[in-house]
Design goal:
The protein has 271 residues and is of the alpha+beta class. 37% of the residues lie in helices and 21% in strands. The strands form three sheets. A five-stranded antiparallel sheet has the order 9-8-7-10-11, sandwiched between helices. Helix 3 packs antiparallel against helix 4. It is globular, with a radius of gyration of 20 Å. The relative contact order is 0.16. The structure holds adenosine-5'-diphosphate and magnesium ion. Adenosine-5'-diphosphate binds next to strand 4, strand 10 and strand 11.
Length: 271
C-alpha cells in the first residue's frame, strides 16, 4: 500500500530490509554515498534509525519518536509529564538478571494503590499478547516472575473500558480515521486477539481527537495509531501509542487509506 501510494506521487519507494541496510552501511564505511530524499522507517531498529539520522536523513517517524512509543514505560512517563490522562501506573525497576525475586515493597505498594484486578503490561509488546489482568497478589507475583528481567508496568485497570477501546489513526496532527474495537470474551480489545471493529470516525468527540493528536505531538510522531480507553464518565484515557501501527484492518473497517495519507503528508511537508 505504501509503495502504491508513493508511486502515485512519482516517488520511487525502495524497500530495504534491516539486514540489507546494515550491510550497505558496512560496505560503504558508514557514510552512505547516495542518500535518499527521505526514509519511511517501517521498523523499530533504533540503532539503525539513529545511525541513519546521524547521516543527515529525515526519518518518518523520527528515531526518538519510535523509541518513545516502542517502550510503553517511556510513553507513559513522557505523556504523564505532559499532563495527558492515563491509567495510574508503577514502572518496573531495572533488573540486570532474573533473580526470581521482585522487590516485595514495590509490588505491595503497587497493589495497595492500584487495587485488584490490575493490569500488568510488558514495556515491549504488541497485539495484546504481553498484557494481562491479575486478580490477586499471587497472580501478580507469578506474572512478575514470568516476565523475568524484561521491563514492565503495573497499571490501574479501567473497568469501564472492559473489552472495548478506540484506535485512532493520526497523520500529521490530524485524525484521519478511527475504529471502535470490542471483544465480549476478553478485556483486551485488539482485533488480532479476536476483537471486532466498527467505523468510529464520524462519532469521535473533540476530546478524543485532541488527546490522540496531543499524544503524537508530545512523542514527536509524524503519524501513529493511538489507543484510547473509555474512562468512568466516558472520557478518553490514553492507553498506548503505536509508531508503526498496522493499518490494513483500519482500511477494511473504514475505507480510509492510511498509506495514501502518510505519503501525502510526507510530500506536502517536504515542499
Ligand atoms: N489499563 C487498562 N485498563 C483496561 N484495559 C486495558 C488497559 N490497558 C490495556 N487494556 C486493554 O488491553 C489492550 C492491549 O493493551 P495495549 O496497551 O494497547 O497493548 P498492545 O501493544 O499489546 O496492543 C488494549 O487495547 C485495551 O483493550
Ligand atoms: Mg494496543
Amino acid at each position: 500500500m505504501l509503495e502504491g501510494a508513493a508511486a502515485s506521487f512519482d516517488v520511487e519507494l525502495k524497500r530495504i530490509g534491516g539486514a540489507d541496510a546494515w550491510r550497505i552501511l558496512a560496505e560503504e564505511g558508514y557514510e552512505l554515498k547516495k542518500k535518499p530524499d527521505f526514509v519511511l522507517f517501517w521498523d523499530k531498529d533504533l540503532r539503525l534509525a539513529y545511525e541513519l539520522e546521524r547521516q543527515g536523513l529525515r526519518l518518518y517517524n523520527p528515531a526518538a519518536a519510535i523509541e518513545a512509543c516502542d517502550d510503553k514505560t517511556l510513553t507513559w512517563l513522557l505523556c504523564r509529564h505532559a499532563g495527558l490522562p492515563q491509567p495510574d501506573s508503577f514502572i518496573s525497576p531495572k533488573k540486570f538478571h532474573d533473580d526470581g525475586l521482585s522487590d516485595p515493597a514495590f509490588l505491595a505498594a503497587a497493589a495497595d494503590r492500584l487495587g485488584f484486578p490490575c493490569v500488568v503490561k510488558e514495556a515491549f509488546g504488541s497485539f495484546g499478547q504481553q498484557v494481562s489482568l491479575v486478580r490477586d497478589e499471587d497472580e501478580l507475583l507469578s506474572q512478575i516472575r514470568q516476565i523475568g528481567e524484561r521491563p514492565y508496568l503495573i497499571q490501574r485497570y479501567v473497568a469501564s473500558s472492559e473489552g472495548r477501546d478506540l484506535r485512532l489513526q493520526v497523520v500529521g496532527e490530524r485524525v484521519i480515521a478511527a475504529m471502535l474495537r470490542e471483544n465480549a470474551s476478553d478485556f483486551r480489545a485488539n482485533i488480532t486477539n479476536g476483537g471486532t471493529a466498527s467505523d468510529y470516525t464520524d462519532r469521535l468527540t473533540p476530546q478524543q481527537t485532541e488527546l490522540a493528536v496531543r499524544a503524537c505531538r508530545v512523542l514527536g510522531l509524524d503519524f501513529a495509531g493511538v489507543d484510547l480507553l473509555f474512562g468512568e464518565k466516558g472520557e478518553p484515557v490514553l492507553c498506548e501509542v503505536n509508531s508503526n501501527a498496522h493499518f490494513k484492518n483500519l482500511y477494511d473497517c473504514t475505507g480510509v487509506d492510511t498509506a495514501k495519507e502518510i505519503m501525502t503528508y510526507i510530500m506536502t511537508s517536504r515542499n
